[in-house]
Amino acid sequence: MEAQKNNKSISVLKETKDDEKRVILMPDQVKLFVQAGYQVYVETGAGNGSGFSDDEYREAGAEIVSTSEAWLASPFVVKFKSPGPHEYHFLHQKMHIGAFFHAEGNPELTKVLCDSGVTAYAFEFFRTTDGFFPMSFADSEIAGKILMPPISPDNYATF
């Protein structure tokens, strides 16, 4: 697979933190991206902890890929929680990554993000014009449930 082959694409990564079972995009949300003309890459097993199989993502139009392919296939990658130390080597200057980072309590992560040159979108700081933080609500108030933040192709520009 060629790295970053489609600018209108998104990669969905599997969570690797202990006891983290959520996935950032459900198959229905993947289908919306596909219908909007995005190529969607989903890391194999990304939805298993939330009850979604690779086949469900494939039926929604995603391409199921390996871990390294998921990190390299698109310039924009999303996951629920921030990358762990074993994933830092995937971060690079041309990458855009969205996640719940909570980096304020993790100086090592903050330094890695800065040093790598990655453009990071901390979902916990997305705010509507009326001052509401809808994605933080989804992460903190409903932790552990299958409710994903309002991620849709309408919310993203082409990178």
From TrEMBL:
Signal sequence, renumbered to the chain: none
GO terms under cellular component: plasma membrane
Domain Alanine dehydrogenase/pyridine nucleotide transhydrogenase N-terminal span(s) in chain numbering: 11-143
SUPFAM superfamilies (UniProt xref): Formate/glycerate dehydrogenase catalytic domain-like
InterPro entries per UniProt: AlaDH/PNT_N (IPR007886)
GO MF entry, a single one: alanine dehydrogenase activity
Any one Gene Ontology BP term: alanine catabolic process
PANTHER family: ALANINE DEHYDROGENASE (PTHR42795:SF1)
Protein name according to UniProt: Alanine dehydrogenase
Species whose genome carries this gene: Lihuaxuella thermophila
